[in-house]
Amino acid sequence: MHLPQLFAYLLPLCLSAAATHLSAPSGPYNVGFTQHIFNHTTPNDPTPGPGNIFLTSIYYPTRSVPSPNTSVAYFDATSAAIWGDVFNILPSHLLSLETTLQWQAPLLSDKEDVEKIKNWPTLVFGPGGGMNAGYFTSLLSDLASQGYTVLALDHPGEAPYLPLPYGNPGVVGWDIYMPYTDSLIVEMYEYRRAEMVALLGPDGFPALVELYGAYFNTQQYGAFGHSIGAATATGAMDGLDSIVAGFNIDGGLFGDSVNASLKGRPYFMTMNPNHFASDPDTWISFAERYANESKTEGGWLDWTTVEGSAHLAFSDISLWVELLPKIENATEKVDLGNVSGTRMDEILKTYVVSFFEWVTCGRYDEKLLDGEVEAWPEVVFNAKVRSDGHGTDGQNLGEGHA
């Protein structure tokens, strides 16, 4: 559906609806939120966007108590109409979603808090193709509530609509049903990777932190993402030693990320059971190469499948569909699997938080990170690599998945 069509019915459908809350973040802190537009040129930008900026959303811990005056809206009206049409949800119901994010809340000031987390790696996130980073708010805010600073990137013009802060007009992008060719996906990967590298470079996030005198870590990063955002994180990790660990959420590898060499840095891969239908070999070859490198480099890798899941279920979308009323008698357009949104949200948070907690603090949950656990029977381990280069689930990492 194109934007002009949307405005014809946007107003009558956007009537008031009772507020709906995502699950509260599980960490000890509340969550502050701000955004910054970075100047960065994308040569021959394939999207309808301006090609000279990218947007970074920053999630960070705060002790400030949430209030209606500082709360951040989940949806804007334009995006609610677009995405509501896809998932058979009235725009008014999507607009009823509320976050616990607080716009530009004060940073932590307690010395004990600051000393505890100022050296934790800053986490940088890439969303799935054509999706706004805000559609992963549940996961990103949960990480911030644990004490992490989280940076999430958006490329204006890729998603159907991206609202921009500080009075700037939002950017209309590709149609939501945009067909992605293999060559276009590589172009997307290349501009995404360039933006992530620029963000972590001296003129990006480090310069912003210096300008405002914040305590955020600009020396070490963890990189993660969903779909093409995961490829972006992997490619950036290959090129930047400052990225100490990576987490791939159901993302095939594209461009030079296919041959990424991680030099033994920790890496977690999780996927839906149909992943190999669209990506038959990049994960297998990546894991096998990682295992071979680990014989000399050392290393740690987990590769799991969440049985019953689907690609978009690794985002907040599965929560929208579970928590909000659906339009009656509407035809389902997107498969979200048969794991509930709340369950998927809990699974993803549990593993991502546990992984980065180990990387950051050395607290290693052997029960969770070394194999199947009773609490999460959906999570099946396909392979593991440890420092001797051998997988504890067998050495043919691609066995059973070709």
TrEMBL record:
Signal peptide coordinates: 1-19
Domain of life (superkingdom): Eukaryota
Any one Gene Ontology BP term: lipid catabolic process
EC number: 3.1.1.47
Transmembrane feature ranges: none
GO molecular function term, any single one: 1-alkyl-2-acetylglycerophosphocholine esterase activity
Domain AB hydrolase-1: 123-311
InterPro entries to which the protein is assigned, alphabetical: AB_hydrolase_1 (IPR000073), AB_hydrolase_fold (IPR029058)
Pfam family, one: Abhydrolase_6
Keywords: Hydrolase, Lipid degradation, Lipid metabolism, Signal
Protein's recorded name: 1-alkyl-2-acetylglycerophosphocholine esterase
Naturally occurring in which organism (per UniProt): Didymosphaeria variabile
